[in-house]
């Protein structure tokens, strides 16, 4: 995994060209790091450091903070800054750190860009604007303005379930071709659209196509994706590193078996009773319960107003861990 040093990239606008060094901005397994919290919902810095060590020891290729799995939308600006500073400091150059700068409008995103870049992030991950409906021309303008002001590479984050806008493959490729985007994290669930980006970007230098799916990593890598950003990699980073290596080695039979094992483990995200909680509470609660059960973090608390798992639901998480050979 190769990233330019912070604050050294010259941002390029529409008239620019992609960097010609042939290096991908990011590749391999890049977990979207959970944000451990104390019982009073402050960032648990010692647990966060242990989580970084847990991921690093497994051989992951990078760390992505302040994404959906990090509960970025639930954190204050102060907490976001603390998370970035903690992970950058503790990673200590062992791994590049990507930081989400998710917010509703361009000016607010630019404020986050300045904050995480000052904290040492190696790249920023940016969604389309949200709250108001945005036209593709406005989305393109948003990314161009952010890239023009960012001292580090910009990776687009396609997550329509959260921002209610699907990034068109053609727009992503246009921005990539103009040197505005250094990559795409695709959490849209649209494998055909992702394939179009992967295929269309093959001739581009310095652009990375990453899947955000836990369940189709083998398929995405077979299509030619550069890597994966799976939330479940917090719980089982060794499994995703193993899967990535098997795919790169062309051992598709063993890769399929590993992917199926991880799909079975991912079913833990459905342990929460939908009559009393949403899918986010269930999934993030399961990830944190698993990390707590594995001794990585001190407390499984999720950010307010998410609903915590019950004891019975947590016991179900333990059964999934045992079934996957993790307990």
TrEMBL record:
It comes from Streptomyces hyaluromycini. Pfam families: DHDPS. It is an enzyme of class 4 (lyase). SUPFAM superfamilies: Aldolase. Gene3D superfamilies: Aldolase class I. SMART domains: DHDPS. Residues 1-30 are annotated as: Disordered. GO terms for molecular function: 4-hydroxy-tetrahydrodipicolinate synthase activity; 5-dehydro-4-deoxyglucarate dehydratase activity; N-acetylneuraminate lyase activity. Keywords: Lyase, Schiff base. Its EC number is 4.1.3.3, 4.2.1.41, 4.3.3.7. This is Dihydrodipicolinate synthase family protein. Belongs to the DapA family.
């Amino acid at each position: 995994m190769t990233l330019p040093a912070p604050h050294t990239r010259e941002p390029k606008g529409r008239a620019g060209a992609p960097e010609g060094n042939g290096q991908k901005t990011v590749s391999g397994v890049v977990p979207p790091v959970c944000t451990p919290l104390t019982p009073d919902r402050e960032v648990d810095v010692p647990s966060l450091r242990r989580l970084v060590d847990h991921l690093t020891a497994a051989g992951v290729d990078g760390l992505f903070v302040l994404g959906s799995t990090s509960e970025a939308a639930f954190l204050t600006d102060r907490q976001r800054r603390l998370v970035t500073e903690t992970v950058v400091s503790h990673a200590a150059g062992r791994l590049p750190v990507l930081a989400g700068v998710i917010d509703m409008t361009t000016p607010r995103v630019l404020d986050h860009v300045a904050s995480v870049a000052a904290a040492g992030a190696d790249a920023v991950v940016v969604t389309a604007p949200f709250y108001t409906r945005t036209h593709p021309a406005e989305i393109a303008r948003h990314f161009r303005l952010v890239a023009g002001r960012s001292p580090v590479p910009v990776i687009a984050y396609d997550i329509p379930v959260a921002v209610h806008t699907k990034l068109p493959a053609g727009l992503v490729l246009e921005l990539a071709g103009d040197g505005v985007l250094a990559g795409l994290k695709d959490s849209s669930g649209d494998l055909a659209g992702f394939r179009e980006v992967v295929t269309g970007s093959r001739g581009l230098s310095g652009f990375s196509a990453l899947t955000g799916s836990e369940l189709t990593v083998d398929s995405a890598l077979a299509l030619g994706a550069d890597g994966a950003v799976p939330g479940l990699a917090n719980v089982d980073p060794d499994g995703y590193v193993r899967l990535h290596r098997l795919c790169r080695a062309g051992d598709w039979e063993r890769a399929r078996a590993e992917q199926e094992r991880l799909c079975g483990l991912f079913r833990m995200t459905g342990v929460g009773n939908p009559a009393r909680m949403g899918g986010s509470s269930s999934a993030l609660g399961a990830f944190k319960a698993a990390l707590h059960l594995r001794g990585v973090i001190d407390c499984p608390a999720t950010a307010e107003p998410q609903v915590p798992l019950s004891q019975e639901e947590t016991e179900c998480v333990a059964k999934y861990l045992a079934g996957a050979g993790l307990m």
